[in-house]
Amino acid sequence: MSGYLFDTPKIQSIPVKGEAAEYPINRIFCVGRNYAAHAAEMGGEVDREAPWYFIKSPSAYVASHATVPYPPGTANFHYEMELALGLGAPVFRADAAEASAAIYGYGCALDMTRRDRQQDGKDHRRPWDLGKDIENGAVMAPLTRASDWQPMGQRIHLAVNGEIKQDASLEDMVWTVAEIVSHLSGFYHLIPGDVIMTGTPAGVGPVVAGDKITGGIDGLDPIALTLSDPE
Ligand SMILES: CC(=O)CC(=O)C(=O)O
């Protein structure tokens, strides 16, 4: 082969606290309904048998503190504040201890959602791609290495224009990060660069052009996103 027919998109990467090099994104997995109160506000229940997932394209990534246009194809665009983790070692069919040891770091994330398109998918028993896989819809703040921070029931919160909308504890997660990585490794050969967003607590809601979203998890770099007018 003598090269590609056209230029390929650059690899998306997340800054890491205290590191010059960035964390290159391979895949973005997202856990659905990992907080009972959010499952209830969506009219559902958590699945206690096993976690379940949807996927966002790496090209959906945007760095925290960006200003991005209100996306096309929705009249009900929602924020979802989440804890994200990035893997730093390969794992396949890992137990919880191996899974935990493979986590490179953690960061705040926003799983931006076209709620109307997601509902459409649910109503017609179709996939959620248009609801979840959104350009600029996988927002991530810089990662903190796992050696410097571990999830231990820290506060997770989000505000829109300064008004608190989501406020919970990481202890409320149905599936722990080790359980999630272990379970997902039963389906994929997970590798460094694979990112997992671990689900959102209750209090999701709509945003409009001009809104500023800010969020945080105690001990991690905060996250922000501002919405400008649609293109
Ligand atoms: C019901 C959802 O929006 C799924 C999801 O993104 C989450 O629970 O987090």
Automatic annotation (TrEMBL):
Record bears the keyword Metal-binding: yes
Chain ranges of the Fumarylacetoacetase-like C-terminal domain: 28-220
UniProt name for this protein: Fumarylpyruvate hydrolase
Species lineage: Bacteria, Pseudomonadati, Pseudomonadota, Alphaproteobacteria, Rhodobacterales
Native organism: Thalassovita gelatinovora (Thalassobius gelatinovorus)
The protein's enzyme class: hydrolase
Name of a matching Pfam family: FAA_hydrolase
Swiss-Prot/TrEMBL keywords: Hydrolase, Metal-binding, Pyruvate
Source taxon at top rank: Bacteria
